[in-house]
Amino acid sequence: GLELSVNNHAADFSLSTTAGPPVSLSCLVQNSSQAEELLWYRGDGQVDLKDGNKVNISNICVSPVAESDNGVTFTCKLARDKSVQVSVTLDVKFPPQLTGEESLQIEEERDVTLSCNAKSNPQAQTAWYRNNNTLILEQNRYQLYQTSEVFQLSIIKVQKSDNGTYTCVVKSPLGEGRKDFHLTVADKKPLFPKEAVIAAVVVVTVTVLFGIVARKDKIFKVW
């Protein structure tokens, strides 16, 4: 019976590739005795084809392949019977891309979260370092949160001893990325700042003096 093939695959398949180089997809009508029009779709959207690239054989090129193409499905369909189709899903391999540094200042006894955002395929593994040494994750002091793209380290109620450089290292079989966080722990501000207390005392003192001046006649009469 009539069927299609994409890159010699007659059933849906996954195509492994890397970001950068182009990928060509060729759809061919099999076992047809007449001219058959073909359609291409990227996800749910139809791909525009030139007139000479629609009948019995149709080629499309993804160039350049980007990280955002990972997981995208391309489907070739028979125009007169769209149930006849073959799909290919791109499996785009790329290393984690994580660089840079960030400086953070936080008061004592407050919580702070260090966040690394890094995509990769295959998924990367994460390690945290402090001053170039593996960070020992003390219970009730550190919390880790991780998804396929987000890696976070939270420090609970920071102390002056937490000063230092924290490094997020993200590794996959294709490479690694890293980001530094320079953490400075500042003195805890008093609940009532000294400047505010002094200002309040001055205001009260001036108010009392003005009150005494305003009532000086009555005060003198009493004396």
Brief write-up:
By secondary structure, the protein is mainly beta. The protein has two helices and 16 strands.
Q: Can you put this structure into words, describing what you see?
A:
With 223 residues, this protein is mainly beta. It folds into 2 domains: 3-94, Immunoglobulins (Immunoglobulin-like), CATH 2.60.40; 101-186, Immunoglobulin-like, CATH 2.60.40. 13% of the residues lie in helices and 46% in strands. The protein is built from 2 helices and 16 strands. It has a 5-stranded mixed sheet, with no helix packed on it. It has a 5-stranded mixed sheet with strand order 9-16-15-11-12, with no helix packed on it. The protein has a 3-stranded antiparallel sheet with strand order 1-3-6, with no helix packed on it. The protein is rod-shaped and about 95 Å long. The model has no long low-confidence stretch (mean pLDDT 88). InterPro entries: Cell_adhesion_signaling, Ig-like_dom, Ig-like_dom_sf, Ig-like_fold, Ig_I-set, Ig_sub, Ig_sub2, Immunoglobulin_dom. One of its GO terms (molecular function) is cell adhesion molecule binding. Residues 20-87, 96-186 form the Ig-like domain. Keywords: Disulfide bond, Glycoprotein, Immunoglobulin domain, Membrane, Transmembrane, Transmembrane helix.
Give, in order, the helices and strands. Answer: EEEEEEEEEEEEEEEEHH
- Taking the alpha carbons of the first and last residues, their distance comes to 122 Å
User: What spatial order of strands do you see in the largest sheet?
Assistant: 2-8-7-4-5
Percentage of residues in DSSP E strands: over 45%
The CATH topology annotation of the largest domain reads as Immunoglobulin-like
Shape: rod-shaped
Provide the residue-averaged pLDDT: 88
Number of domains: 2
The CATH level-2 architecture of the largest domain is identified as Sandwich
What percentage of residues falls in helices of 4 or more residues? Answer: 10-25%
Biggest sheet, open or closed, and with what strands and sense? Answer: 5 strands, mixed
